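I am still getting used to backbone structure tokens and would like to learn alongside you. Label the sequence line and the structure token line clearly, so we can match residues to local backbone shapes. Would you write everything just below, so we can both look at the same thing?
***
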Amino acid sequence: MKVGIKEKLKRKKNPLILLMFFMCFYIIMNLPIILFLTENYEGLKKFSPFGYSPFLLNIFNFDPSIYVSNNMSPIHPFLNFLTIPLVKIAKLLGFNTVMGYNLFFLILQSAINSLSVVIIYSLLLKKYKDVILAIIFSCLFGISSYSIFSAFIPDSYAYAQFIIVISLYYLLVSFKENQYSKNMGLSILNFGITSTNIIPFFISTIINLFHSKKLKEAFKRSVLLSFILLGCISLITFIQKILFNQTWLDSLLSNLNNGGFSYTADFSFFMHWKVIYLLFINPIMTPNIALIDLNIMAFVSDLEKSVPFYINIIAILVFIFVSLGIIRNFKKKEIWILFSYILFAILLHIVVGFGLAVFEYDMYLYAGHFLVAIWLLCAEFFYSIKSTSIKKILKYVLVVILVIILINNVSKHLNFYNNLVASYESIINSESRLDSSNEWEFFSNNDGFKIVRTNLNLSERPYVVFKNGEKLKDYNADYFNTSDLTDFYVNNYLYISISNIDSNWSEDYTPTEQEIQHYFEANEYTVYFKN
């Protein structure tokens, strides 16, 4: 009896220990980055595409969307119901400085990600009663790369992942077919924060219904839930219109084109095989991260570097565990629910090709929301093992995997911080004025503008050009179609398009080298390189 009481007390303490440990872990890991961005805010602001926000770092595909008050789109329909209150709460609590805002969201999102760890622990413990495995798998989720990075970047990812974790707890542990309010609440949250997340959630709901009801009755309830969901979405959209005078539907086509279809490409294994890492491996194990584009200061997975052998080994082991979890428990509804999240990611990113057009600009392929499903499917395999000795051996294997992932993610996070600091210092120290000391050449006449060039005698590398303090757009020189565009071409020439109005050159006039030099003396052009 005493042992039972001690075990119960131990189990009650574990969630609190996990919560406090991971909150401290996320804050300690990410605070140096926040401090660097804050202390160097004014100097870095000119380079960042997010100059409107206190958060300047651009890790693709994370944006500081929390600071966008009108953040309502087909991708994030009701996100502004979350972002506006959060920013106001931060301000009311006195976190209304650059450091304050960044610290507020670091603490908040560290708490949210830590709660996700606790919920996963509780889910596994309630279903399978194995404390050790529950701790190991919840920790594997907690130390995963996606959990670490989403803890400090003020974007939708931490919140979307949290809703998915809660949804899976509901779907796997506490689902009841007549609880319409819970189902609708989670449906709206999934749809509102990231609309595509409603698909695996709704599929999982249907799986639960068909598992517990006869076919005809399950179909009726599925149709009923669909209509209730559409009604709720319509009502909230109406409220959105009243409160903000606009809705997520207002720019449906333009948002889908700019943020969706333009990023879509047909999958080719020869061209896109590395997306397997971005989709399934990088969310678990932090990759090498590199700055590849100074115009948008894009830090992304360094696809040029070879992947360490230990990452490939762990990726293979995780794949085997997931596969065995599916095969050994194929008839269980839990497997189909979890696999629906992974399958949807494959359909969206591989079959449809969403994100493939610009996959080189991602750290993860858009979002690793399905990360939790990977670890829960692994857990399903371990819980299905009947042999005590085999399970014990595999537990040790899991602990080794956990330690390797932890070491990799901590070291790669530190490397990222050092790379971040070194990259910005390198860029700032590389400042060079473009003026009469450069040998300028006239290149071509165009409608309303001219193209000039100069050989900078530098190998091709990331760069950015400013004109009178304003950043110029990087564009392929072969397709210049307006003024104020730049391109550092493979021939080491920097090409710049100059407006005829700005330069006072007539449409068909060919300026001399001296006239071009005079123009650059009159206008302050500055170029920065990543050394």
